[in-house]
Amino acid sequence: MQELHDAPLAPLTTFRLGGPADRLITATTDAEVISAVREADDSGTPLLLIGGGSNLVIGDKGFAGTALVIATKGFALDGTQLELAAGEVWTDAVARTVEAGLAGIECLAGIPGSAGATPIQNVGAYGQEVSSTITEVVAYDRVTHETVTVANADCVFSYRHSRFKADPRRYVVLRVRFELEDADGLSAPIKYAETARTLGVEPGDRVPLAAAREAVLKLRSGKGMVLDPEDHDTWSAGSFFTNPILTDEDFAVFHARVRERLGDGAVPPAYPAGEGRTKTSAAWLIDKAGFTKGYGTGPARISTKHTLALTNRGGATTEDLLALAREVVAGVRDAFGITLVNEPVTVGVSL
């Protein structure tokens, strides 16, 4: 278990932002993870868990406590059952399941970060969410001081949310188990219209697994959503804001605001999100509020490829990023009466 003091955290995040940690520990086994967590908890030391760093916004002052990098490894496939250690690189794991001919997470290709983060955020993209394939999550419970196995039904998954996100100081994810599908080398049914168009098929069709993965990687790359260390336009946390989910009443009020601002024929994106609820597009809201691709003149700007990605152009500070985020939130609220919610976890700062 490696230990450093006054250690830079910015290199451990995809934003390349944030100050140092008082203490930085890198754990490579579940036992080391649990030991580091117990030590911090027993001494009352603040603890920051870091996986792939793709969902973190760390303040410029850094973190006054122990930062724990979960770098555990483990990819175990038994038939259609997959178990991943929390520290496994998610994109690599997806690639290996595709190579093995198993469907279920192929449209989650290219998402940066670690496997252990996927159930926390209920990671999803292009018509798939991990909640549809996760069977169990093995975690250390910081309240009971036990390793627990949480069944899918008890994870309380919803859009970009779970019981782990709802109670972030309680659980430390150690392993994630999935049930995939052997469809003779074919993907799960393609649900997302944009993916279907790219593949030249209809929604509901299946395609070769490799084709589905490559199509998603192509779409993500075109939006700057595949991390490239040489391209500052990808120095981001991916989608910075979640798509708003509105009640029918709130959506009607929102629709009226849209017509008032954009004209009687304007129709905002609308997707069913459960009984009496509709999801709309954060990217659409940002764009229509006047924040177009490439917006900004400082070191933090909106991506030139996608309005949902806020980027570090190479010399930004966390405060630069937050200033841009606050400007976008205020602009969308003024234009449409909707308050966007940030998707990344903020450490020592807030919008």
For the biggest sheet, the summary is: 5 strands, antiparallel
Which value, in Å, is the CA radius of gyration?
20 Å
Kindly name the structural category.
Answer: alpha+beta
What is the H/E order? EEHEEEEEHHEEEEHEHHEHEEHEEHE
Proportion of strand residues = 15-25%
Q: How many β-strand runs?
A: 18
Low-confidence stretches: none
Mean pLDDT, to the nearest integer, reads 96
Global morphology: globular
Q: Which percent bin holds the helix content?
A: 25-40%
- Write out the strand line-up for the largest beta sheet, numbering strands in chain order: 6-7-12-10-11
Count up the helices: 9
The rounded distance between the terminal residues' Cα atoms is: 34 Å
Please provide a written account of the structure.
The structure is a single chain. 27% of the residues lie in helices and 24% in strands. With 351 residues, it is an alpha+beta fold. Strands 6-7-12-10-11 form a five-stranded antiparallel sheet. Strands 1-2-5-3 form a four-stranded mixed sheet, covered by helices on one side. A three-stranded antiparallel sheet has the order 13-15-14. A hairpin with a 4-residue loop joins strand 14 and strand 15. The protein is globular.
